[in-house]
């Protein structure tokens, strides 16, 4: 028998609606008419019955691709690195045959996501993508297999196999870490916020590799070849883009988001969005000169280029310059290293890089071997801290034998006579002869007291019974003779 709904009742001339929830709370509301009170009761009970339902039907109903699509709409859209995260999520969506996601802006100018069907690409670009995907074919196949699985049947072994496949195809530990970090966070929020009761995160317990920090250094010849290749680009915005990337150490996304209405050339500062929020970037004199001489675009953007256009232009430049492994993000690294060589410290670099702490700013201060040698030479004292030993003649074994023979054959020195002593024993140590005589004269000039007389008599008695002991050249120590019993 179905449980009847609670009925409104009269209270102070109005209709009061009240319900009792499973939590024990009893919310209520007053209305002018009976129908409104009944509607409120139905709505409250309906919400109470559905408030604990799992998102997407729970892990037994949702596939990994569906869960990542839901995660992107709730969390990825609010992240500074939304573009790179959407790129990873789209691999799973494509593997499951779902529409892809891309970033857009709503009517309020806020960042939002929209689904889209990938369009046919030009033949040259499609061939380029096919070649790149062919190098990671097994990784994409493993991602597609995971994307179609229900989340409840995905286990730790599945994630470990994905990691092994990515490693076998040459992907770095840093790339693998980012992939697993995305899945780990998605599973964590699903268990905590999506009402996936009893769900266990399959990525828990996985030990990830340690990412290696990139050490970037190019020679002067390579740098000259790089700028020569940049000068040959047709796009008039690409050269200023690279120059500003080096001078400001901004990331590609921040550079492409620069606008003239937020760039103050006189005040030498630019307000740009970054991964950590909107920041004010100081502009060097060279950066101001570059920005002042470049053409203006009607859109108001400083660099009216797409991320894909920048990537393709950079690929051609680095190959032509003979540095195919130099990535665009390395320009930020090179710029920070150049500032460090000019004498900027970690706190100043922190302001330029837009970091909140000096820890990460220190990562960009890469000193090459010659820099370390120059620093050692600059800090070396005029006179050495330690003496240089005499040059060795012969082998170490022969030197040891020679020194030992010289020490053993050295004749025993004659014991010095009492009149040859140049030091005098005192209660506080040994004094040279001149200082001892001065101290003795000062003691004799002091007025005599009964206490002093007794002390001098006792001291003279000790000196008479003292036996000198030879310690070396003109150095002795006095010690009392042992009295006969």
TrEMBL record:
GO biological-process terms attached to the record: DNA integration; DNA recombination
Pfam families: Phage_integrase
Single GO MF annotation: DNA binding
Region (Disordered): 384-485
UniProtKB keywords: DNA integration, DNA recombination, DNA-binding
Domain Tyr recombinase, chain residue ranges per copy: 213-377
Database matches in Gene3D superfamilies: 1.10.150.130, Intergrase catalytic core
Biased composition (Basic and acidic residues): 432-447
The keyword Protein transport is annotated on this UniProt entry: no
Family membership: Belongs to the 'phage' integrase family.
Protein name stated in the entry: Site-specific recombinase XerD
Species the sequence originates in: Aquabacterium commune
């Amino acid at each position: 028998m179905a449980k009847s709904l609670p009925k409104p009742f009269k209270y102070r001339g109005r209709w009061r609606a009240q319900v009792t929830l499973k939590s024990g709370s009893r919310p209520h509301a007053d209305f002018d008419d009976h129908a409104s009170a009944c509607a409120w009761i139905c709505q409250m009970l309906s919400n109470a019955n559905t408030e604990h339902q799992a998102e997407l039907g729970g892990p037994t109903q949702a596939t990994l691709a569906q869960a990542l699509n839901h995660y992107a709409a709730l969390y990825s859209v609010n992240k500074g690195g939304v573009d790179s995260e959407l790129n990873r999520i789209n691999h799973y969506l494509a593997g499951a045959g779902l529409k892809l996601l891309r970033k857009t802006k709503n009517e309020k100018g806020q960042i939002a996501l929209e689904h889209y069907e990938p369009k046919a690409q030009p033949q040259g670009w499609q061939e380029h993508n096919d070649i790149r995907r062919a190098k990671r074919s097994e990784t994409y196949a493993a991602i597609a297999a995971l994307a179609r699985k229900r989340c409840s049947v995905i286990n730790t072994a599945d994630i470990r196999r994905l990691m092994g496949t990515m490693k076998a195809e040459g992907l770095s530990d840093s790339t693998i870490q980012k992939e697993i970090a995305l899945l780990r966070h998605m599973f964590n929020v699903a268990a905590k916020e999506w009402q996936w009761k009893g769900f266990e995160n399959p990525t828990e317990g996985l030990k990830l590799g340690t990412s290696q920090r990139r050490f970037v250094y190019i020679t002067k010849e390579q740098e000259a070849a790089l700028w020569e290749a940049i000068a040959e680009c047709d796009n008039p915005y690409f050269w200023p883009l690279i120059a500003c990337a080096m001078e400001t150490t901004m990331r590609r996304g921040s550079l492409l988001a620069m606008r003239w209405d937020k760039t103050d050339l006189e005040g030498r500062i630019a307000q740009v969005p970054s991964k950590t929020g909107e920041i004010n970037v100081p502009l060097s004199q060279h950066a101001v000169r570059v920005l002042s001489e470049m053409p203006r675009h009607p859109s108001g953007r400083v660099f009216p280029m797409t991320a894909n256009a920048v990537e393709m232009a950079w690929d051609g430049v680095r190959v032509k310059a003979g540095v195919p492994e130099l990535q665009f993000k390395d320009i930020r690294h090179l710029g920070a290293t150049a500032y460090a060589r000019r004498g900027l410290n970690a706190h100043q670099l922190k302001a330029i890089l837009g970091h909140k702490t000096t820890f990460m700013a220190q990562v960009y201060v890469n000193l090459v071997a010659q820099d370390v040698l120059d620093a050692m030479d600059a800090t070396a004292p005029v006179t050495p801290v330690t003496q240089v030993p005499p040059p060795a003649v012969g082998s170490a074994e022969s030197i040891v034998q020679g020194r030992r023979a010289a020490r053993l054959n050295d004749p025993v020195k004659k014991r010095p006579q009492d009149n040859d002593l140049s030091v005098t024993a005192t209660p506080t140590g040994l004094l040279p002869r001149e200082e001892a005589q001065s101290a003795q004269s000062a003691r004799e000039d002091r007025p005599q007291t009964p206490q002093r007389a007794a002390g001098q008599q006792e001291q003279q008695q000790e000196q008479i019974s003292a036996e000198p002991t030879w310690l070396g050249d003109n150095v002795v120590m006095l010690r009392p003779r042992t009295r006969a019993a």
